[in-house]
Amino acid sequence: MACPRSAANLEYLCSKGIYHLVSLSEETLPPINKQSAIEWTIIPVEEFEAPLLDDVIKFIDICSKCLLQNKALGVHCRQGRGRTGVMGACFLIKFQNLSPDRAILDIRLQRPGSIETYQQERAVFKYYDYLLSTK
């Protein structure tokens, strides 16, 4: 998703059951305060860059915890396509056992224009290779 820019956006996410929000952009941060019902994690990734493998692993760890607690998670960057698309594809690889090609395709079908650069595509494949190496 794109960055939630107002308190009303955050209230909407809460109303839809979003429990944890992961921000991939430091340049646009949502207006979360200490009273917010949403937990918040920043994993900073430069715009149009790919997340590092450690960033993806951290994101997947957060996803795993939310899934175990049966709580919904949201992830955003500035526009919700490049960096967010990479994390979404890696989620599909980990939790739905998709191939990297299929995960990228599924993300792009849901949100056209996602995973914007070759480096972002490579990050998805690197995560897949990492998972294979840990089996």
TrEMBL record:
The keyword Oxidoreductase does not apply. GO terms for cellular component: cytosol; nucleus. Its EC number is 3.1.3.16, 3.1.3.48. It is an enzyme of class 3 (hydrolase). Coiled coil: none annotated. Keywords: Cytoplasm, Hydrolase, Nucleus, Protein phosphatase. It is found in: Cytoplasm, Cytosol; Nucleus. It catalyses: O-phospho-L-seryl-[protein] + H2O = L-seryl-[protein] + phosphate; O-phospho-L-threonyl-[protein] + H2O = L-threonyl-[protein] + phosphate. Protein phosphatase that mediates dephosphorylation of proteins phosphorylated on Tyr and Ser/Thr residues. In vitro, it can dephosphorylate p44-ERK1 (MAPK3) but not p54 SAPK-beta (MAPK10) in vitro. Able to enhance activation of JNK and p38 (MAPK14). Belongs to the protein-tyrosine phosphatase family. Non-receptor class dual specificity subfamily. This is Dual specificity protein phosphatase 23. It comes from Diabrotica virgifera virgifera (western corn rootworm). The gene is LOC114329020.
